[in-house]
From TrEMBL, chains A, B:
<keyword id="KW-0805">Transcription regulation</keyword>
<dbReference type="InterPro" id="IPR009061">
    <property type="entry name" value="DNA-bd_dom_put_sf"/>
</dbReference>
<protein>
    <submittedName>
        <fullName>Heavy metal-responsive transcriptional regulator</fullName>
    </submittedName>
</protein>
<feature type="domain" description="HTH merR-type">
    <location>
        <begin position="1"/>
        <end position="69"/>
    </location>
</feature>
<feature type="coiled-coil region">
    <location>
        <begin position="81"/>
        <end position="111"/>
    </location>
</feature>
<dbReference type="InterPro" id="IPR000551">
    <property type="entry name" value="MerR-type_HTH_dom"/>
</dbReference>
<keyword id="KW-0238">DNA-binding</keyword>
<keyword id="KW-0175">Coiled coil</keyword>
<dbReference type="Pfam" id="PF13411">
    <property type="entry name" value="MerR_1"/>
</dbReference>
<keyword id="KW-0804">Transcription</keyword>
<dbReference type="InterPro" id="IPR047057">
    <property type="entry name" value="MerR_fam"/>
</dbReference>
Length: 129, 129
DNA sequence: CTTGACCTTCCCCTGTACTGGAAGGTCCAT
DNA sequence: ATGGACCTTCCAGTACAGGGGAAGGTCAAG
């Protein structure tokens, strides 16, 4: 399978496939006599795994770790569980941060609706913030 | 006031002050005979405004817009209200996205806790994802 | 034999908000 | 006059996940 075909069936681009290879996520495929990349069908499953992992918000570095474990012949189950747990903690923190920021911004907006604009002063730029 | 002093009283760094000048957030200050930047005291209020705006999650580009309006002699009140409203919409979207992702990841983790690891298969890499 | 689609490597660019460091100039005290 | 603290400009890099485009090679069809 050539790179364009793999890109199409996996729903990505040739640029991304070369980038993944460079980043160590995809093994370097065989080459045809003309120098073209010639992918084995298994590459598609691997790309699906990468896509699913990305959907879960894992970074390419984390995905590479999982793949490295698998490629070393070990089942990465425990590592994946740890990653998911850590990711959940990150998400909770991010959500909490954004909610706190939301409160701040909502309060600024509410103040802006009630405060007299003439009390703005040029040196302070804007008293709404 | 020299750049180091302004950096200290405003709680930032000289690097950042030069960067803000370059980015059009701070007007280029007077220079001393020796070529040193010589800030007027008003610079501090402007930096406070920038800091408050950053706390509200505004980008430097948005802050610059507000400052440009103010520097054109117009009170930026309406623009700031619009910005805050838009920011609130962005935050709501971001929070909703992260919460959806949290659900996805939580479900993956829960599945990982119950599914038999021996059903993993090397080509799929990991059935938890 | 040529055209066009596809492929190759290579290097730079995107956006965000800075940060690090080199080479050199200024100022004040000793 | 010399040391050290401070300042100047300029260049390059950080993290993230690719994207853009140039210059050139390959392959099947007409």
């Amino acid at each position: 399978m050539r790179i364009g075909e793999l890109a199409q069936v996996s729903g990505t681009t040739t640029k991304t496939l070369r980038f993944y290879e460079e980043a160590g996520l995809l093994p370097a495929p065989e080459r045809t006599a003309g120098g073209y990349r010639d992918y084995a069908p298994e590459a598609l499953a691997r790309l699906d795994f990468i896509r699913r992992s990305r959907t879960a918000g894992l970074t390419l570095a984390q995905i590479r770790q999982v793949l490295d474990i698998r490629d070393a012949g070990v089942a990465p189950c425990q590592h994946v569980q740890d990653l998911l747990e850590a990711r959940l903690g990150d998400l909770d923190r991010q959500i909490a941060d954004l909610q706190a920021l939301r409160h701040t911004v909502a309060r600024l907006r509410d103040d802006a609706a009630t405060v007299d604009p003439t009390s703005c002063d040029a040196t302070t730029v804007c008293r709404y913030l």
